[in-house]
Amino acid sequence: MGVLYLLSKGATVRKDGGRLVIEKENRLVGRMPIRSLTSIVVGPAANISTPAVFACLENNIPIFFLNKKWQLLGQLANEHASVAVIRQQFACLEDYDMSMQLAKSVVSEKIRNQYRLLKSYTRSSQNSALTKALKMLKAERSKVDTADSADSLRGIEGNCAQNYFAGFGALLDNRTWHFKGRTRPATDPANALLNFGYAFLEREVRIAVIAQGLDTRIGFLHSNNDRKDSLVFDLMELFRQPVIDRFVLNLLRLQVYKPQDFAKDDEDICLLSDEARNAWYQKYEDYMEKTYQEYDGLSPRQLIQKRVEAFRQELLYPTKHDKKKQ
Prior knowledge:
14% strand, DNA-binding, 10 strands, four-stranded mixed beta sheet, globular, CATH 3.100.10.20, endonuclease activity, Four Helix Bundle (Hemerythrin (Met), subunit A), alpha/beta, 326 residues, CRISPR-assoc_Cas1, 12 helices
């Protein structure tokens, strides 16, 4: 099972029996059995035929479309959230105690992930910025349980992000990467990789949410409106550090990428070069499919799927202990 990235200019995919035929500028690139795919990612300069789209939908293979900045523009997928599930999601959203309980759980887990990632580097990187970040994260996490609103939680989350990325930057050679903190859009290579990685993470979480039959729009931490699939953004917070930040740190610290692999566009946004993006796809897929001891023998992709499944159980079948807490 795998992901087909259709991102090169002039790349096309068409259906031929039970296979997809990938071509570029009328040259055969390869063939893939349709049922071997888990998803397809299509860039703005590529093409996928209508019969290929129908075949993917018939086989429950989601298709994701990216814009020129490689951000998710839209999707085609057989979303099948039942009325009962949607009602329960709305019930949790409208129940203040339940909504806060879920939000606190996510924020607390995110801070714990930030702390663990930075802590894992203390043996090889001893500096005051890292020590300070760890101390501040520990202090902020202690405030989560007493937060009385989603705004308060978002404030704690923001303070933690600022301290975490100060520690993150201390793990990089700033003579090479010039990382001054988190920026969106990206102003430096490290932020370009983080932004690129989070776009991939959004797709991973979206697939997992859809697979669990949940409605992507109904969340509990981020604002719920017609412009955001709030549940996807809520659950992404659980995986930024253990999946994407970990991967990006390894790429930079092992010097897989060089400063010349990045360039700024007309809007002064730092982006990966075509060659750097092409290198990312294979390295990312290898990483997402490899099992790790720290994930209890799961791959990062399996970790996401299992955690989202656990969230579904927590959401739809709260325990008696949880109900008492409400």
